[in-house]
Amino acid sequence: MLIDGGESTFGDTVARQLRRLGVLPATPGYVPCLTLLLSHAHSEHWEGVIRLLREPATRTVDVVDPETGEVTEEEESSCAERHRFRAIYWPAFDGGNRAVTVDGVRILVPVVKEPQPSVKECAETAMTVAGAFPVATKVITIGPGGLAPGAATPVESTLGRGAGDLDITVRVLAAAQGIREPVSGTFTPVVRHGDSVDQNDRPICILIEYGSFRFYAAGDIAGDGGEVGGNTGDNAADTSGSHSDVESLLGAAVIRRFPKTETPKANEAKFPAAGQVTLHTDRVQPVSGSRLSGRTRMEPSGW
Fold first, then answer.
1. What's the confidence (pLDDT) of residue 262?
2. CA distance 237 to 224
3. What pTM value is reported for the model?
4. Separation between Cα atoms, residue 241 and residue 220, nearest integer Å
5. Neighbour tally for 117: CB within 10 Å
């Protein structure tokens, strides 16, 4: 799974890294093993994806002056499909600073500013079957609380099996300004802070679970600016701005959703704390799940 693609200048770098890992083929084509997750609608997260999906090109065309009949040559830009992914998960593209109602709660939705050509345009091309691309990409839109259209519980998917024949499972924890707990169905809205709302309040937040290993990815969610979760120095959230405190809401929901292992058993995943995450912050302190910060750089720990 590729999570976001960075700015437009990062596209080729991401492609080279994926080829080095053996994920992308050397030539354009369908990539059945690769799933793309676009966390939220900020261009520095998804413009690079366009470079993976399309190959910019130019061609020389003859232009005839309608008055003089003079013929001149001009370069014309075009984009050919480059790689096609197995699936694309993206947040609901609501926009226009309008209010929507979810479970009786009104939520203000911010404007979506898409790059040109947009990721949506690329995905629409990939959803068709043509030429060298006989398989269509599956595009899944994730709405408030992590629901796909027509679904009653948050999206859950698998990336296949890893070593030890263990499932690699992806669970959506929050999306589009909402958190929905799958068992109770409780919906917790991310209420706007101040007079506006930011796309950083809307990311698709996921948990990837592989045996006893857990990895959280939460876009650019902000918190209350507290030190727990790494909100210090340059990472500290600006509580005076328009960002809502998604971190605290999500952390509490994750603790409720993923309890600790009361009775460890052989050959089964073990989690010594509720909301356990197999990561540590820059200061080598474990994150228990009470705070989940998309702004905190995290690395695997040896738990």
1. 92
2. 6
3. 0.77
4. 14
5. 14
